[in-house]
Amino acid sequence: MVLTLVEHDAGAVDDVSLETVTFARDVAIQEDEQLVAAAFGDGAEDIADDLSAYGVDQVCAIEHDLLDAYAPEGYAESLAQLVEELSAGTVVAPGSDRGHEVLVHLATKLDVPMATSCTEVEAGDVYGITRQRWGGSLIEHAELEADVKLLTVVPHEVSAEPAEAESDPAVEPFAPELDDEDVAVRVVRQEESDMEGIPLSEARVVIGGGRGVGGEEEFAQLEALADKLTGTVGATRAAVNEGWRPHDDQIGQTGAKIAPEVYIAAGISGAVQHWVGAKGSENVIAINTDPEAAIMQKADYAVVADLHEVVPRLNEELEE
Questions:
Q1: Which domain holds residue 303?
Q2: Are residues 247 and 176 part of one domain?
Q3: How many CB atoms lie within 10 A of CB 139?
Q4: Same domain membership, residue 223 and residue 175
Q5: Are residues 303 and 224 in the same domain?
Q6: Contacts of residue 146, Cβ cutoff 8 Å, sequence gap at least 6
Q7: Phi-psi category of 266—alpha, beta or left, where left has phi over 0 and alpha has psi -120 to 50?
Q8: Which residues pair with residue 62 across a beta bridge?
Q9: Among the four residues 55, 92, 207, 259, which has the most C-beta atoms within 10 Å?
Q10: pTM
Q11: For the segment 267-280, what is each residue's pLDDT rounded down to a tens digit?
């Protein structure tokens, strides 16, 4: 049995989880095992419709009065009991903040190792895995041997692909046995960001600005371009540290991970830490005066020019 953790918003499965399900389905095929999805929270029972196209055989909707909010140890304890109930040999989770946190706790409870940030797996008694390290700058080939193999999948590195044939997954409620100690750490309040516009993680077009933008006021031209392209503005850590943009706008290893159709990187050098957050972009257009800048080597299209000349010209052309 291969068990995959699915994150959703009121029954709507997010893109990273669909990528994870695709990865887990490949493992299940190699193992000749069933693929079971586990989900928490309101709407968990509604994800079957989304997952039927991805070959999921069963959905376990985990329910408990103590799990009315995210509680990492409570989630992990629930999964540990579900692993035992299903005799699951593999658990695959999204490489998100929650996915990593829950699987770390699960690894502790099961007393097994885990492999994070995986991109490929060759299943068997011992798994051969390919995974990213050092923010994606290093590719590691390793082996994983355990009674229960725990894996997380790098976001935006595995394409979400429907199965060759749709399934009709049964939805089964699962009620774990939990006590207050299992939810000692839990979310007690959520505060909405006061930032307006499309969230970076959801934007199909992102305009990124780095130190080369030159200042807080100069980001106005990037905002204008984003408005015309129905996109949103992001920034490098350097621009955030200068106080030009809020941390919510930061793209990179310690910021948002983006996967837009188009990413326009203006005045950005392309440090590894930034690229970790931007490499999921389908098309990268870099604007920089330095043709040797790292971002220019990674870009699909490179414009060797001053962004203060290029961006206003783009705005003028789009205005017409």
A1: 200-319
A2: no
A3: 12
A4: no
A5: yes
A6: 112, 113
A7: beta
A8: 40, 174
A9: 207
A10: 0.78
A11: 999 998 899 889 88
